[in-house]
Write a structure and sequence with these properties.
The complex is a heterodimer.
Chain A lengths: L17 H13 L3 E5 L5 H11 L4 E5 L6 H5 E3 L1 H10 L11 E3 L1 H7 L5 E5 L8 H11 L1 E4 L4 E4 L5 E6 L7 H5 L2 E5 L4 H11 L5 H16 L9 H13 L21 H12 L7
Parallel strand pairs in A: 1-8, 1-9, 2-5, 5-8
Antiparallel strand pairs in A: 3-4, 6-7
Helix pairs in contact in A: 8-9
Chain B lengths: L2 H12 L7 H12 L6 H13 L6 H21 L4 H23 L6 H6 L12 H5 L7 H19 L1 H12 L4 E10 L1 H10 L8 E7 L2 E7 L8 H13 L5 E7 L6 E3 L7 E3 H7 L5 E5 L6 H5 L13 H11 L3 E5 L10 H6 L4 E3 L2 H12 L3
Parallel strand pairs in B: 3-4, 3-7, 7-8, 8-9
Antiparallel strand pairs in B: 1-2, 5-6
The chains are: A alpha/beta, B alpha/beta.
Chain lengths: ~280, ~375
């Protein structure tokens, strides 16, 4: 077991921590899917893009929705198209292969070079969804039932799976994954992240923004706490508007960029309405 | 954690991912051995203890209760010799789980609803350490499953004993079932397809629709202890039926005593509190709220105002009930007290907030009708 593999060290546009790097490297070395969890907006999806950029491997994304079924990731047999063709005589309907449309997993297996396969928000789907994928991700092969073709991965793809924790994932699935939980960045890391997105931002404005941002995140009555991406957006709005200094009070400019729910805006206003000091 | 994890760790180490450093080993082991953020802190504790010899304040208690556990085990071996070997394994699992619970209590996790959700010492507390929790210990599997089964165990005895009576309640609750066709249309609508094809002069025209999905979310909040004790059986029946109802999208259960004062609890030992505002944040008004309680208390318990937290404005119990009622348009109160005693006491006040029904099969049917009424 001396196979040397390329280690992931992050990219200029994506900051990593030691633990994230070693989780990624574990997944690479063991050829196992990497399961990434964390609050929304902590860069789970971006991680896949960063890995794809670092290894110059194309990125295939499978956005999972509540109605997504595992089968769709492999292939879909377009029966309706075949039926239409049989009625209107377009092409050879005897060849079922023409009507097999491969999904992201199928494409990843068929790709000529190594690809990064991102299965985004796996918890959105049905409870059984992850179980249905176990075998395919383990063996990196599946069979097209209609034609009897075996689709085997030419190059084992790098599989990144993200989850928002809406549903618990099955144990059997978890056992096969390398797990990493992206912590919410602390002020220090946040400062570096913002600097990546807004190079040349005025230092004192950055300080003010960060302190306000973490204060607002500390408010307990919020239904949805602002996340990194919202902070980055907010700062760019502030910059465009030419605002050079912000203070935490009722008239916080562009609050809508940070708080997205009516109730949260009301709760925010509440904090100041009674003239009470800002407390969580 | 199983063999697979250990093999993975060994492979990772032999590949040198940890770069031969303790920090590297920590990161690698964490990524491979822990499968959920809920267990990260436990891993940290275990790691710290192993490698730095950190001791915990709770260690003494752990020893004490470990002794206690062993004692119980000896007693059981006498009665069920054939299961002795299996139970010895279970004991290890339980002990491990228990030590973990203890450590969580002393560790810094006081926020985070997920955390406390699986934590909590109650299943292992002095009162909660009853035989059912021990007899069918969680065999193998992850720690998450173990906690779950430890929690669920509490009601297992009830469930098997009262299956016959349960049925009626189940049937009543089944009416809460509601389906919606939402999402991606992937079901062939045969009727409409025939219609559309006929209208299309016989040219095939396929009509699809989304599949029906259960769309009922239920929030069950139960009064426990004190004057509710005589009704514990009736309450646990409804609870069992609700737990068994598979046609709901979601069921959340909470506990309180006498009246709701700014928070409810996730366990019936009043562990793991959750603030009402936090609860409302987590649940949309689409939830159907079912209260179970006798609503009997001293009038001051309902009307007296007391600050829920230092510094916050004082609020009364009835105020909190109003907050819940306002958030959940579909809510009922099931009362085990007979309706003839529903006036001239605190029940009357609670009735003015929630539509109240007698905790019988009939009353439950009426309550379900109220919950499903269109408005």
């Amino acid at each position: 077991m001396t196979t040397e593999f390329r280690r992931f060290r992050g990219t200029p546009g994506y900051l990593t921590s030691d633990s994230l790097e070693s989780a990624v490297n574990c997944a690479l070395a063991l050829e196992k899917p990497l399961l990434v969890k964390g609050e929304p907006g902590t860069g789970k999806t971006l991680l896949a893009e960063a890995i794809s950029a670092a290894f110059e491997a194309p990125l295939l994304t499978w956005h999972v929705k509540s109605t997504t079924r595992a089968q769709e990731g492999m292939y879909v047999y377009d029966t309706v198209a075949r039926l239409y063709d049989s009625r209107f005589g377009d092409g050879d309907v005897r060849d079922i292969r023409r009507y097999i449309k491969f999904g992201p997993v199928g494409e990843a297996f068929r790709a000529e070079c190594r690809v990064v396969l991102l299965i985004d928000e796996v918890d959105k789907a049905d409870l059984e969804f992850p179980n249905d994928l176990l075998h395919e991700l383990d063996r990196m092969r599946f069979r097209v039932g209609e034609t009897g073709d075996d689709i085997v991965a030419r190059q084992r793809p790098i599989v990144i799976i993200t989850s928002n924790n809406e549903k618990d994932l099955p144990d059997a699935f978890l056992r096969r994954c390398v797990f990493h939980f992206i912590d919410f960045p602390d002020q220090d890391l946040m400062r570096r992240i913002v600097a990546v997105h807004h190079p040349g931002l005025d230092g004192s404005l950055l300080d003010q923004c960060l302190s306000i941002f973490f204060d607002i995140r500390g408010m307990q009555r919020l239904r949805k706490r602002p996340s990194t991406s919202e902070l980055v957006d907010w700062i760019s709005v502030l910059q465009r508007a030419g605002i050079t200094s912000v203070r935490l009070d009722r008239e916080l400019p562009f609050l809508g960029a940070l708080l997205k729910k009516e109730q949260d805006l009301a709760a925010f206003a509440d904090q100041f309405a009674g003239g009470r000091k800002f407390r969580s | 954690m199983g063999t697979q994890e250990v093999v993975n760790l060994a492979r990772a180490l032999s590949l040198g991912i940890h770069e031969s450093s303790l920090e590297g080993f920590y990161e690698v082991a964490r990524a491979l051995l822990v499968h959920s953020e809920q267990h990260l802190d436990e891993f940290d504790l275990a790691f710290a203890e192993h490698f730095r010899g950190v001791t915990f304040d709770a260690l003494k208690i752990t020893e004490e209760i470990r002794g206690w556990l062993e004692e119980v085990q000896k007693l059981r071996e006498l009665t069920e010799e054939e299961k002795a070997s299996i139970e010895a394994l279970d004991l290890d699992e339980l002990q491990r789980l228990f030590e973990r619970r203890l450590k969580e209590q002393t560790s810094r996790h006081d926020g985070g609803s997920r955390w406390i959700g699986t934590g909590g010492t109650s299943p292992f507390g002095r009162g909660g350490f009853h035989p059912t929790g021990m007899t069918v210990g969680p065999a193998g599997g992850g720690a998450r499953g173990a906690v779950k089964s430890a929690d669920a165990r509490r009601y297992k005895g009830y469930r098997t004993d009262i299956v016959l009576d349960l049925r009626q309640i189940e049937v009543a609750l089944r009416r809460l079932r509601a389906f919606t066709r939402e999402g991606y249309p992937d079901e062939l609508d045969i009727e409409s397809t025939i219609d559309a094809t006929a209208q299309n002069a016989g040219e095939l025209s396929v009509v699809v629709r989304p599949q029906p999905r259960p769309d009922t979310r239920v929030l069950l909040i139960m009064d426990v202890g004190g004057s509710m004790d005589p009704y514990a059986d009736a309450v646990s029946q409804v609870f069992s039926a609700a737990k068994r109802a598979t046609h709901w999208k979601e069921l959340r259960t909470f506990y309180f005593h006498n009246c709701v004062y700014g928070r409810v609890y996730r366990t019936d030992h009043f562990g793991e509190p959750i603030g009402i505002h936090e609860l409302l944040r987590l649940t949309s008004p689409k939830y159907k709220l079912i209260f179970m309680g006798d609503a009997l208390m001293a009038p001051y318990e309902l009307h007296a105002t007391s600050p829920d937290e230092p510094g916050s404005p004082p609020t009364s119990g009835i105020h909190w009930l109003g907050v819940l009622r306002q958030h959940f348009p579909q809510s009922v109160w099931l009362n085990p007290e007979a309706p003839r005693g529903w006036s001239g006491n605190t029940i009357e006040a609670v009735r003015s907030v929630f539509p109240m029904f007698h905790l019988t099969v009939d009353g439950l049917t009426e309550a379900v009708a109220e919950l499903t009424r269109r408005r």
